[in-house]
Every structure is written in structure tokens, then in C-alpha cells.
Write a structure and sequence with these properties.
By secondary structure, the chain is of the alpha/beta class. It has helices at about 35, 65-75, 90-100, 125-140, 230-235, 260-270, 290-300, 310-320, 325-335; strands at about 5-10, 15-20, 25, 45-50, 80-85, 105, 110-115, 150-155, 160, 165, 175, 185, 190-195, 210, 220, 245-250, 275-280, 300-305. Helix 5 (about 230-235) runs parallel beside helix 6.
């Protein structure tokens, strides 16, 4: 059976080309995708495409954009074998993380990709990223099930779990990395899948569930030497605040000043969830390792294991939207829902 793939273009560098008359960069027509990227015809897949109107710059993406994207996949889910989402790179890790939490019981590939140079530029990285993403979205195992039934990011020959990625380079083609989980696949002469890392359903055939309730009443506090009490208190006392991500040193450590511990305890008493995520690119929060971390744990701060900041933010936005009761949020955030943390 011929694989059917839906391309969803939301905006971003990858979908741009030079206008023949003006010379300016303009979005190309994704309705004629096989004319713009003729290499796709060699696959023999059935490929359709839709474009968001208006297109969205990645810097302007909000949780409501995530809802629109998740619902777009839901509407077309039964008609296609896989989805390739073209999007700007600046917030791709946030969006891929969010979609992983929004799409429960996902059994089909949802592959995010983009580029550092427009697809219409001679030296673009976009064409290779795009073509490989389509191939991965269509790939099947011997039993006919998808090779990668997950939300992923493909960039510069590597396929990452979406909620494990972070953008770490604005100038190189190798723009994304997954510091705490190896790639799910590498594209060379052949695409080699690391099946032992890929999450497959324990039971196939479940209907897709889309979680479309969000709450972005949260904030982040990045710990740095000399952080002031007034700064922390200003954030922790924001009206309506549901949760705060505190970006700490190393394995989850923070200054031991009594005012900081007291401020966190008071916020937790008021019902604010405090989630501890390390500033380090790789590694995990383990608050029991050092006395400074133990103070945070005793105060009621929740450890985020090896979650990325992008995944932590999107996970909290989804969970606080889904649950009005903080106890339910705390129970869920400590679980490995979509492979976002290592426990």
C-alpha cells in the first residue's frame, strides 16, 4: 500500500525561495510541493500539503498555535500514515515537546523539521532535511507498523525525540542536539533506526486523544550568582501564578540563603508548583546529592530529572491546563509521560 504523507507548513525559513521578479524571499507554493522539490516524486508516495494562513514566525508561536497544530493533525489523522511539520527553528523544540504531550496514544510519525537556510537557496540544508523527514514519516517495519510512531525532530542527518531536543547553534547546520538521549535514527547512505530507543505502543489500535487545554500562568527563575531577593519575590508573587520552573546549578543546587528557601516555601504553601530543572546541557537533577539540593527538596521543590527546559515549560503548560488540582499536576509531572525524562 502506497504511504500517504501530509506536509503541514506553518512558516519558517525552510519554506522560502527567491521571487524571480523582485529577488525577495517569499514562501513557495506547497500545493505544488512535488514541482518545488521534484526529488519527492521518486518515493512514489501520496503526498498532500496544507499551509497555515497566516504563516507564523517561530518567535510568535504561542500555546494557542500548539492547539491549532494538534487539532490539524487530529482532523487528518485517519487519512494519512505520517505527518511532516515544517516550522521555524527558534521554538521548534518547544512545539515538538508540546505536541508530544498533547497527542496521547499517538501511533503515527509526526516529524518536525526546518532549515537554517531557505529551501530556495543553493546551499540550503532544507531540502535534505525535508526529503529525509518525508522518508522517515513513511517508513514501516516488517509487520507494517511505523518505524517511529513518535513526535520527533529531524535535523542534519539525525532524528531526535521531540521532547528531548534543544536548539544550541544559530549558525551551523547542526542546530539541534539531544543531550540526554541518543538519536532515534541516523541518516547516512541508509537510515539506521535505533529501535531500542523508540517508544512503541504496548497495544496498537487505540484512538488518538488530543489534549487541547492549556494554562500559561507560569514563570521561570534562572539562578545566578548574586540573584536578588526582590527579583525572586517579584516573580513568585505574580497574581494567578500556577507554577515556576527554577533553573538551578549542576544536579539541582541553588544558593542556601534563608530568604530564598523561605520565599520558595511560602510560594509552595500558597499553591505554586516549583519545578527544579538543571541549567546544564546534559545531566540530571538529583537534589539528594548535595546539602544545597536537600534544602530545596525539603522545602517542597519537585525535581525534574533530566528534562529539558523546553519540555518542562510545555509539560507544565499542558498539565496545568488539564488539571485544576495541583496534586494531580504534581502526580503527572513526576511521571515519564512521553519519554521526556529518564527515571
Amino acid at each position: 500500500m502506497t504511504p500517504s504523507i501530509l506536509i503541514i507548513y506553518t512558516g519558517g525559513t525552510i519554506g522560502m525561495k527567491h521571487d524571480a521578479k523582485s529577488g525577495a524571499l517569499v514562501p513557495f507554493n506547497f500545493r505544488q510541493i512535488e514541482e518545488e522539490v521534484p526529488e519527492l516524486q521518486k518515493f512514489g508516495y501520496h503526498i498532500d500539503s496544507i499551509s497555515f494562513t497566516p504563516l507564523v514566525d517561530s518567535s510568535d508561536i504561542t500555546p494557542h498555535f500548539w492547539i491549532k497544530l494538534a487539532q490539524t493533525i487530529q482532523v487528518h489523522y485517519d487519512r494519512y500514515d505520517g505527518f511532516v511539520i515544517l516550522i521555524g527553528t527558534d521554538t521548534m523544540a518547544y512545539t515538538a515537546s508540546a505536541l508530544s504531550f498533547m497527542l496521547e496514544d499517538l501511533e503515527k510519525p509526526v516529524i518536525f523539521t526546518g532549515s537554517q537556510l531557505p529551501i530556495g537557496i543553493l546551499r540550503t540544508d532544507g531540502k535534505e532535511n525535508f526529503i529525509s523527514s518525508v522518508e522517515i514519516a513513511a517508513a514501516r517495519r516488517n509487520d507494517g507498523t511505523p518505524q517511529v510512531p513518535e513526535v520527533c525532530v529531524f535535523f542534519e542527518n539525525q532524528l531526535f525525540r521531540g521532547n528531548r531536543t534543544t536548539k544550541d547553534n544559530a549558525e551551523q547546520f547542526h542546530a539541534f542536539r539531544s543531550p540526554n538521549l541518543p538519536p532515534l535514527a541516523q541518516a547516512g547512505i541508509q537510515i539506521k533506526y535505533n529501535h531500542h530507543l523508540i517508544r512503541y505502543p504496548q497495544e496498537w489500535g487505540k484512538p488518538l486523544k488530543v489534549h487541547a487545554k492549556v494554562c500559561n500562568d507560569l514563570a521561570t527563575i534562572k539562578i545566578f550568582p548574586g540573584i536578588q531577593e526582590k527579583t525572586v519575590n517579584a516573580i513568585l508573587n505574580i497574581s494567578g501564578l500556577r507554577a515556576v520552573i527554577i533553573e538551578t546549578y549542576g544536579s539541582g543546587n541553588a544558593p542556601t540563603q534563608p530568604w530564598l528557601i523561605a520565599a520558595l516555601q511560602q510560594a509552595i504553601t500558597r499553591g505554586v508548583i516549583i519545578y527544579n530543572v538543571t541549567q546544564c546541557q546534559a545531566g540530571s537533577v538529583a537534589m539528594e546529592m548535595y546539602a544545597t539540593g536537600v534544602l530545596l527538596k525539603d522545602a517542597g521543590v519537585i525535581g525534574g530529572y533530566d528534562i529539558t527546559v523546553e519540555a518542562a515549560i510545555s509539560k507544565l503548560i499542558l498539565l496545568t491546563g488539564q488539571y485544576a488540582n495541583n496534586d494531580d499536576v504534581i502526580t503527572a509531572i513526576d511521571k515519564n509521560l512521553r519519554g521526556e525524562i529518564s527515571i
